[in-house]
Structures are given as structure tokens and as C-alpha cells.
Fold:
Amino acid sequence: MSRSFSVNPIGVVKKTDDAARIEIFDEYADGLLGLEGFSHMMVFYWFDQNDTPEKRKTLQVHPRKDPRNPLTGVFATHSPLRPNPIALTRCKIVAITGNIIEIEEIDAYDGSPVIDIKCYVPASVEDKDVRQPDWIKK
Amino acid sequence: MSRSFSVNPIGVVKKTDDAARIEIFDEYADGLLGLEGFSHMMVFYWFDQNDTPEKRKTLQVHPRKDPRNPLTGVFATHSPLRPNPIALTRCKIVAITGNIIEIEEIDAYDGSPVIDIKCYVPASVEDKDVRQPDWIKK
Structure:
């Protein structure tokens, strides 16, 4: 088998009842320069609550934990159960102050380790060219 | 500092002059069930040729290696130089046969380690609500 790679968190998700933000660790704050020019960003975080050997071995799930959805390979879903528990979500940027990114909301737990951020550039795929299974549309 | 996480490749990018495919390692092939229902997928791969301590410390770049573009934090770009060299790209699925995903094209080197695949679901952000800096539009 091929070698493994090491991922070091660059920050952390902080959530309260009425606010959400991402705190970038000081040593990585210089990487935020210019992010304020974007309305949205892609946030990569780690499903750390699902990072167990057993959950990493789960290869098929019923999407959205709904048994009425067909058994589906995790690579055809966004399930937190997957060999490498990487989460990807798009966030709207509200404000950036120093190493703090205020965001509108995020579908992550408070305390989730953030492992990367990339600027959000809209997809160039026309909707008419996109095909998805029925369980997605429900 | 927080702990680090381990990423294990699930497959590899294979490219020739006239074809591109992703080979999923046999032990993960069950994770592909249902992916054929999607026209596109998100492929996460590792910028393994940029995984050096020095490149991981690079926090600001001139986007697209063009000195006319403003010095920009790597988190506001898709640069391969970043603390965790994770690449994300969308691919059109041509066919899936066993553990082989034939794709239309991919902006990755032959041999790049694939670390995750997720189904592609179009963004729900309206174009009019997206803001980007000028260097993106060139």
C-alpha cells in the first residue's frame, strides 16, 4: 500500500447559539491575506468525532441515515463515515478580523479541527448537464 | 498545538495523452456503489510533489504564479503550496467499471494520490451573490 500523509489543523470551528466563526491559529494567519475579497470560501474540516478505525472502514451507508435511501458507497455521498474523514462545506464570509473569520453558519460541530480553506469560485457546470440520483433531490 | 491526523490514499490518478482515470484500490472499491448515478464528482487528491516542509510553510503567493497578481494568502487561492497540500477538483464521470472511474479530464499529475471522492451537488449560491477579486476573473 502507498504511504500515508499527515494533516495538521490550521484552526478550529467556534460556534455559539447565535454566532459562528473560524479561528485560524496565529502561525497560519498570514494565509488569510486577500480572503476578504471573496464572498464565500470552501472550508475543509476533520470529522474528528467519526475518526475511529471502525468508522473509517465503513464503505456503504444509507444516505442521510434514512433506511429508505438506497445503500450507497460513501464516495457517492457526503457521509462523515469514510476512509479519510474530510468534510467540505461552503461558508459565507461575514467579516475577517486578524485571525478570526466570522461566518454566516457552518454545518460543523463546535471545536471541529479546520484543515484547509480555499476561495470559493462558482462551478462552471450548467445545471442542465448535472445528473444526480433521486435520493439527492428529496 | 492540536494533534495531527493521518490520511491514507484510497486510489491514484492515471493519465495518458488521451485518457484519464482514477483507480480506486481494491479494498475501497465498495465505496463506489451508486456513484454512477452522478454526472460529476469532487475528487480530493494530494499535491504530493509539493509536500515538503518548506512548501507547507508557504503562506502567501502570487496567484497563478503571475507576479502581476497581488500577493495573496494561500487560503484565498487554490495554490498547491499550503500547510496541508489537499487538492480539490471536479471531474465529469464517463464510466465506472469495477474499481476504475473513467473521467473526462483532471488537473492532476499522473500518479497523484487520491484521498477522497464525494458526489458533486451543484452549489445553491446565486451568481449575483458571489463576490471575487479581480485576479480571479482574468
Chain A has a mean pLDDT of 93.
